[in-house]
Write a structure and sequence with these properties.
The structure is a single chain. The chain has about 500 residues and is α+β, with helices and mostly antiparallel strands. The protein contains 16 helices and 17 strands. It folds into 3 domains: about 290 residues, no CATH class; about 110 residues, no CATH class; about 60 residues, Arc Repressor Mutant, subunit A (Orthogonal Bundle), CATH 1.10.10. β8 and β9 form a beta hairpin. α9 crosses α11 and α13 packs across α16. The chain is elongated, with a radius of gyration of 31 Å. The chain starts with 13 loop residues before the first strand and ends with a helix.
C-alpha cells in the first residue's frame, strides 16, 4: 500500500505535532467585496443580494477599497510585507452557494506575505508564528439542510446574504505545536482584528472561522520517524472546539498509525460536536483543481508607501504591546492588564482616566470593579456607562488623599450614573467625605478612652485584636472620621501613655 508502513508492534515512543492555521475573517465593511450590496449578519434570507452577487449576465465587479485597507492593516499588525502590486484571480469550481460558480480570490500574489507574530503563553514563554500570507477574497453563501424552524427537508436550501462578504484568509506556517497554542493563537488573532476595528470577530455569527492543518511526526521504538499526511479540519467556530478538535485529530493520526501502519492521505475533515470526534469529508483538493486564472474584469491593486504610512497611523499600539506596558510600566497584574487591553475601547478609557490624573493601579481597580459592574448591569460597553474617565480619576484621587474610603466608591459611582458632577461634591452631598481634622480625631479618641476601660485594658495587655474594636468605637461616636488616621492617632496616643 502506497504511503503506509507495516511494522510489528508499532509503538509511538514520542511525537511532534505540527499545525498550520487557515483563518477566515469577515471584514466589517458597510458593503460587500465587489459590489455595493449591504454587508452584515442576519436579515431575511436572500435580501442582501444584488445582480453581482447573483451572478447575472453582464454585471461587473468593483473593488471595495476599504476592504483592501482593512486587509493591509491586519497585515501590518502581523508584521507582514505588503505587496506593492497584486491582482485578483478566479478560483473556479462548482459552488452551490456562489451562483457565478467561481470565487474572486488571490492566488500567486497575495496582498500580505512573510509576516510573524509572537505568541505569549500563560507561563510567559513565547512562540514565533510565521505568517505565510494573508489574502482577500469573497465569501460564499450558506447552505442549510433544515428549513427555518428546524423542519427536516430532503434537499438543501441556500441563503446568499453572506455571499460576496469581504473575507481575509490568514495562513500560517506549521509552527503551532499543541492544541493549547492553536486555541491561544485564535484568541490573540481575534483581539487584533477587534482592536483594529476591521471585524466584529464574533464566532457565533461566523465572523471568524478556523481551519487547522495538522500532521504528526511519530518516532517509533526503533528511532525511525513516520510523518502522517496533513489533514485540514474545516470551519471551526469556537476556541473550545478548535482546541478539542486539534487534540482529537492528533491522537486519531497516532492511533491510526499504531493500529494499521497507515500514515493517511491528505484529506479534509469535519468536526462532530455530538460525538466529540473528527470525520472524513473528502480528499484534499490541490491548487490545480481550482483552475485559477487572473480575473479579466478587475484591475490590479497598486499600493504605494504613502498609503501604507497612512494605514500605519490608524493602527496604534496593539493589544500585546499594551498588555506588556501595563505590567512593566504601570505595575498592573498580568490578569488586570489582559482585561484592560482586551479591546481598544476599554484600553482607551483606562488611558483617558490616567491622563486625567488618576493613579494607574487605583484607576485600574475602580474600572475593573465598579466600571465593569455598571456596564454589566446596563448591558453596555464601558464607554457607554455614562460616566466619564475623568470621574474615575477624581474618585481615585479622593481615595488616595484619604478624603473617602475605598468602600464609598461604589455609592459615588451609582450617584454618577444618575447625574454628572464633581466626585468630591457628590461625596459631600452623600455624607461620605471623611473628617481628617486631627483635633476632631483626638477629641473623639479621648472621649472613647474615658468611656471604654475594658478594651483599653485588653489592648495594653497585649491583645492586638482589640485595636479594631477601639477604632470602631471612635468611628461610631465621631461620624465621618478617617479610619486610617484614627488608627494611626490611636496607636500614637496609647503607645505614648
Amino acid at each position: 500500500m502506497k504511503g503506509a508502513y507495516f511494522v510489528e508492534n508499532r509503538v509511538c515512543k514520542s511525537h511532534k505535532v505540527l499545525v498550520g492555521m487557515e483563518v477566515h475573517v469577515q471584514l466589517s465593511t458597510q458593503s460587500k467585496m465587489f459590489t455595493g450590496a449591504a454587508n452584515g449578519f442576519g436579515g431575511e434570507p436572500n435580501t442582501q443580494v444584488d445582480e453581482q452577487v447573483l451572478g447575472l449576465p453582464g454585471v461587473l465587479p468593483v473593488m471595495n477599497k476599504r476592504a483592501v485597507e482593512y486587509a493591509i492593516m491586519v497585515g501590518l499588525a502581523l508584521d507582514c510585507k505588503i505587496a506593492r502590486h497584486t491582482k485578483w484571480d478566479r478560483k473556479s469550481y462548482y459552488y452551490p452557494d456562489l451562483p457565478k460558480n467561481y470565487q474572486i480570490s488571490q492566488y500567486d500574489l497575495p496582498l500580505c506575505y512573510e509576516g510573524a507574530f509572537e505568541l505569549v503563553r500563560k507561563d510567559g514563554s513565547t512562540l514565533k508564528i510565521r505568517i505565510r500570507r494573508a489574502h482577500l477574497e469573497e465569501d460564499a453563501g450558506k447552505l442549510m439542510h433544515e428549513a427555518p424552524g428546524g423542519y427536516a427537508i430532503d434537499f438543501s436550501i441556500v441563503d446568499l446574504n453572506r455571499a460576496g462578504t469581504p473575507l481575509l484568509e490568514i495562513v500560517t506556517e506549521p509552527d503551532l505545536s499543541s492544541p493549547q497554542d492553536v486555541a491561544l493563537f485564535g484568541q490573540e488573532l481575534q483581539k487584533i482584528v477587534q482592536f483594529l476595528g476591521v471585524s466584529h470577530g464574533l464566532m457565533q455569527m461566523g465572523h471568524m472561522r478556523f481551519e487547522p492543518n495538522i500532521n504528526v511526526h511519530i518516532t517509533d521504538q526503533n528511532g525511525q520517524v513516520h510523518k502522517t499526511a496533513i489533514t485540514e479540519i474545516k470551519n471551526l467556530n469556537s476556541f473550545s472546539v478548535l482546541e478539542r478538535a486539534t487534540a482529537y485529530e492528533v491522537q486519531r493520526q497516532i492511533r491510526q498509525w499504531e493500529e494499521t501502519g497507515s500514515l493517511g492521505r491528505k484529506s479534509t475533515y469535519g468536526w462532530d460536536e455530538a460525538k466529540g470526534s473528527t470525520f472524513l469529508q473528502r480528499e484534499k483538493e490541490e491548487a490545480n483543481d481550482y483552475r485559477y486564472f487572473p480575473d479579466p474584469d478587475l484591475p490590479p491593486v497598486e499600493v504605494d508607501d504613502a498609503w501604507i504610512a497612512e494605514l500605519k497611523g490608524q493602527i496604534g499600539e496593539l493589544p500585546a504591546a499594551r498588555r506588556k506596558r501595563y505590567v512593566d510600566a504601570l505595575g498592573l497584574s498580568a490578569t488586570d492588564a489582559a482585561i484592560l487591553a482586551s479591546d481598544r475601547e476599554t484600553g482607551d478609557f483606562y488611558e483617558a482616566a490616567i491622563a486625567a490624573g488618576g493613579d494607574a493601579r487605583r484607576v485600574s481597580n475602580l474600572i475593573l470593579s465598579h466600571g465593569r459592574r455598571i456596564a454589566n448591569e446596563k448591558s453596555v460597553t464601558l464607554k457607554e456607562i455614562g460616566i466619564a474617565p475623568a470621574r474615575f480619576a477624581e474618585v481615585a484621587g479622593l481615595i488616595d488623599q484619604n478624603k473617602i474610603s475605598v468602600s464609598s466608591a461604589g455609592t459615588i459611582f451609582d450617584k454618577l450614573r444618575e447625574k454628572d458632577g464633581a466626585a468630591e461634591q457628590l461625596a459631600a452631598e452623600l455624607g461620605l467625605t471623611q473628617v481628617s481634622d486631627t483635633s476632631a480625631i483626638d477629641a473623639a479618641i479621648d472621649a472613647m478612652i474615658a468611656a471604654n476601660p475594658k478594651p483599653l485594658q485588653d489592648y495594653r495587655g497585649g491583645k492586638q485584636s482589640a485595636m479594631g474594636a477601639l477604632v470602631g468605637m471612635v468611628m461610631k461616636n465621631g461620624k465621618g472620621l478617617n479610619p486610617k488616621m484614627v488608627q494611626e492617632a490611636l496607636k500614637r496616643k496609647l503607645g505614648g501613655e
